[in-house]
Amino acid sequence: MSDTPADQTWPLQPERLRPPSMPAQLMRASDADRDEVVRALADAFAVGRLTRDEHDERLSRALAARTLGELAPLTHDLQASPAPAPSPWIYDPAGTPAGATVFSFFGGSKRAGRWLVPQAMNAVAIFGGSDLDLRDATFTAPVVDLNVTCVFGGVNVIVPEGVAVDNHVIGLFGGVDTASTDPQPGAPTVRLRGLCLFGGVNVKVKKRRQPPAGPAPAQELR
């Protein structure tokens, strides 16, 4: 007489040999699982999220891990940070001179609209005035050096909201009036240098009149 239950056929089907379901953390880890954790630890160490000792200690545990539950704690605090929002600022280093000069002598000059702001430029006002409107301009570098020379004259600068202004102009019987700015991540910085003698520099902050998309037509300042 056979001992095989009446509802069981022979040979046994594979599904009858499978163990009952178990929690994921108790499942055996594969080489691929361990390798994935090893790569995550290496990446975290490369960007400074783990110290050398922390990396070595977790690496040893990863290589010795037998279950997924042993691997999970090694990377639970290393989840990738959300990608930062793309900066609206676009820098176009091509098509512009290394330097440019705006010169006003017993008169005035103005630069506004869409134009390329070089990495370094000079503004000279002698018994005259210069107006530089950067609201619709395309910056060619994240830092712009603006060297000013004012002798019985002045330079007016309008920067878009978010642009930082770093003032180091020397004033002798003159000075610089810089509006408070709220620098934004990724926005350029305008560094003011130079001398004001019986003159001054006036910096204002205004909204852009159009998005900072580029590139703008290359126009050399004369």
- Structural class of the secondary elements? alpha/beta
The structural domain count equals 2
- How many individual helices? 4
General form: rod-shaped
Using the CA coordinates, give the radius of gyration: 33 Å
From the N-terminal CA to the C-terminal CA, the straight-line distance is: 110 Å
Largest sheet: 5 strands, parallel
Strand content: 25-35%
Strand order of the largest sheet: 1-4-7-11-9
Helix content: 10-25%
How many E-type strands? 12
Residue runs with pLDDT of under 50 for 5 or more positions: 213-222
Mean pLDDT: 80
What is the string of helix and strand elements? HHHHEEEEEEEEEEEE
Describe the structure.
There is one protein chain. By secondary structure, this protein is an alpha/beta fold. The protein folds into 2 domains: 23-74, no CATH class; 99-206, no CATH class. Helices cover 17% and strands 32% of the residues. The chain contains 4 helices and 12 strands; from the N terminus they run H-H-H-H-E-E-E-E-E-E-E-E-E-E-E-E. It has helices at 14-17, 31-46, 52-64, 68-71, and strands spanning 99-105, 108-111, 116-117, 120-126, 129-133, 138-139, 143-151, 154-160, 164-172, 175-178, 189-197, 200-206. The strands form 3 sheets. A 5-stranded parallel sheet has the order 1-4-7-11-9, with no helix packed on it. A 5-stranded parallel sheet has the order 2-5-8-12-10, with no helix packed on it. Helix 2 (31-46) runs antiparallel to helix 3. The longest helix is centred in the N-terminal third of the chain and has 16 residues, at 31-46. The radius of gyration is 33 Å and the shape is rod-shaped. Residues 213-222 have low confidence and may be disordered.
